[in-house]
Write a structure and sequence with these properties.
The protein is of the alpha+beta class and 106 residues long. The chain has helices at residues 23-31, 41-49; strands spanning 2-7, 18-19, 51-56, 71-77, 80-85, 91-97, 102-105. The strands form 2 sheets. The protein has a 5-stranded antiparallel beta sheet with strand order 2-3-1-4-7. The protein has a two-stranded antiparallel ribbon with strand order 5-6. Strand 5 (80-85) and strand 6 form a beta hairpin. The relative contact order is 0.27.
Length: 106
């Protein structure tokens, strides 16, 4: 099971599996994410306003190769595996992301 904070432009946000999380918990995760580590408390608060919390079941896809790039995922817990399929139908793991790491859907 994976929990992610998701930044996506408001016009494409869906309400699927959104979970309410205290702002202090979001700020804590952001502060420990390399991308946001140097921001002030005020800047973190502004970023946190645009984040949405989602939980994904084990094996559930966050996005697929070729999807339009419109989101940043910050892993809160669990592990995200990025893989590519082979012509033979196998999945080749490219990279894994864990808590505090972020990935771009681009």
């Amino acid at each position: 099971r994976v929990a992610c904070l998701l930044y996506t432009p408001p016009f494409i946000l869906t309400t699927r599996r959104l979970v309410t999380v205290p702002a202090s918990a979001i700020a804590h995760l952001l502060r420990h994410t390399l991308l946001f580590a140097g921001l002030s408390d005020g800047e973190l608060a502004r970023v946190a306003q645009d984040l949405h919390h989602r939980r994904y079941a084990a094996g559930e896809s966050l996005f697929h190769q070729g999807d339009p790039g419109a989101a940043v995922y910050i892993v809160e817990s669990g592990r995200v595996r990025i893989y590519v399929p082979t012509e033979e139908g196998w999945e080749v793991s490219v990279i894994f992301y864990g808590p505090g790491e972020y990935l771009l859907n681009k």
